[in-house]
Write a sequence for this structure.
């Protein structure tokens, strides 16, 4: 009898212990889930102001896949648009929106709650937010990219600043997606500090040219010849963007720009050049992003195959050729390189430095239109037609020279005309057909 009475007591005690353990583990699981949810929600966990958000509204899955690609580049995690609130957007400094439209411009399922909040969003102050927006849709519907356009309009109404005009994609068209990748392919906007600004032209000369060095807050990689997109605000507060070629390599740790402060016939200098050459104080900060040059692949092939490279640049177009040229000189190739630069009064300092330190395989010619012996670059090309033709001629089997011409548009037309009459027509046509005749005019 006594033994039988002990068994129920022990069983009840064990049951109570087991129940306590189960309840404790369940409560611990809830706490861990809540902590994980807070950490993975946009703005959750240790998120502070200044964070970058990647947000998607996906119908077929393309917007979500693109969002994951963008997030991986940034070292973060994308989130469905429904998970974001106006408060989270206010705390962010940069946001990337990748938004599909369902049917005739409607919000996808994972963005319907956000769509219902659009009216309230318009009342928020988002003047501290910069954003990029990709809208995906189908042009067969009247309200093409309707949801993306609605969100874009709401963000602008809140004072948010677009980093570039909205990119719209029709049924996943590769050409449309290429525009997006060109905008965000290299690095997202970050803070850069002006470390040096040097005048390159004589002080008495009009339209002065400057050499700028900018250092990022965190290390950044880019490809030779990359494009720097600088975010600006017009006097009326309208977001603007100006693009400049990067003359330096990432190994230097600094972006080098060469730009001219040019005045129009009756107006002030350009918005970007005026601010960068005079308005921005030494040590001042710039919002800047980097993307690949459209000529990156062709120049990389010429470098890989150690092919001859002829570069012709006018004025500040020198920056576009310096990056690829420096990359070639940093390698182990032996193919000849030839740089011809046209300027007004005197050779730019970076060109003089290169001429002093460059190897024997590099030839540099500086043509001055207002120098001691003034000559226009198109005339110089005609005078040196024989040497230029020999340089770009195929010659030995496997020899495929590349020709890269860059600078402002009007001088560029005159240079192309001079090349057309100076080079062998067959060689020129062959370079054009094979993608080895590159131009970059602005």
């Amino acid at each position: 009898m006594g033994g039988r009475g002990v068994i129920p007591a022990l069983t009840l005690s064990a049951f109570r212990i087991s129940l306590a353990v189960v309840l404790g583990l369940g409560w611990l699981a809830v706490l861990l889930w809540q902590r994980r949810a807070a950490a993975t929600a946009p703005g959750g966990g240790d998120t502070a102001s200044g964070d970058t958000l990647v947000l998607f509204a996906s119908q077929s899955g393309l917007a979500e896949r693109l969002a994951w690609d963008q997030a991986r580049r940034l070292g973060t995690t994308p989130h469905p648009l429904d998970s974001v609130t106006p408060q989270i957007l206010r705390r962010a400094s940069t946001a990337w929106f990748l938004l599909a439209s369902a049917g005739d411009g409607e919000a996808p399922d994972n963005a319907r709650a956000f769509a219902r909040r659009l009216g309230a969003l318009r009342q928020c102050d988002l003047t501290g937010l910069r954003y990029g927006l990709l809208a995906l849709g189908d042009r067969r519907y009247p309200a093409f990219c309707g949801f993306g356009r609605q969100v874009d309009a709401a963000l602008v109404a809140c004072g948010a600043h677009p980093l570039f005009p909205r990119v719209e994609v029709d049924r996943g068209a590769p050409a449309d997606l290429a525009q997006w990748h060109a905008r965000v392919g290299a690095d997202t906007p970050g803070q850069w500090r002006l470390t040096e600004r040097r005048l390159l032209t004589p002080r008495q000369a009009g339209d002065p040219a400057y050499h700028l060095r900018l250092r990022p807050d965190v290390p950044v990689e880019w490809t030779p010849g990359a494009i720097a997109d600088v975010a600006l605000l017009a006097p009326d507060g309208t977001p603007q963007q100006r693009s400049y070629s990067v003359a330096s390599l990432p190994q230097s740790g600094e972006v080098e720009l060469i730009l001219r402060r040019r005045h129009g016939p009756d107006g002030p200098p350009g918005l970007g050049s005026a601010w960068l050459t005079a308005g921005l104080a030494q040590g001042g900060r710039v919002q800047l992003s980097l993307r690949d040059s459209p000529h990156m692949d062709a120049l990389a092939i010429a470098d890989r195959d150690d092919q001859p490279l002829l570069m012709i640049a006018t004025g500040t177009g020198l920056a576009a050729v310096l990056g690829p040229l420096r990359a070639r000189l940093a390698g182990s190739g032996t193919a000849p390189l030839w740089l011809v630069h046209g300027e007004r009064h005197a050779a730019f300092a970076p060109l003089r430095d290169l001429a002093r330190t460059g190897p024997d395989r590099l030839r540099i010619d500086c043509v001055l239109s207002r120098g001691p012996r003034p000559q226009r670059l198109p005339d110089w090309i005609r005078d040196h037609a024989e040497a230029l033709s020999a340089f770009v001629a195929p010659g030995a089997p496997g020899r495929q020279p590349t020709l890269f011409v860059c600078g402002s548009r009007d001088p560029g037309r005159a240079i192309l005309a001079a090349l057309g009459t100076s080079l062998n027509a067959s060689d020129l046509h062959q370079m054009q057909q094979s993608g080895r005749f590159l131009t970059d005019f602005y």
About this structure: Residues 1-41, 43-50 have pLDDT under 50 and may be disordered. The CA atoms of residues 54 and 76 lie 8 Å apart. The longest strand covers residues 187-199.
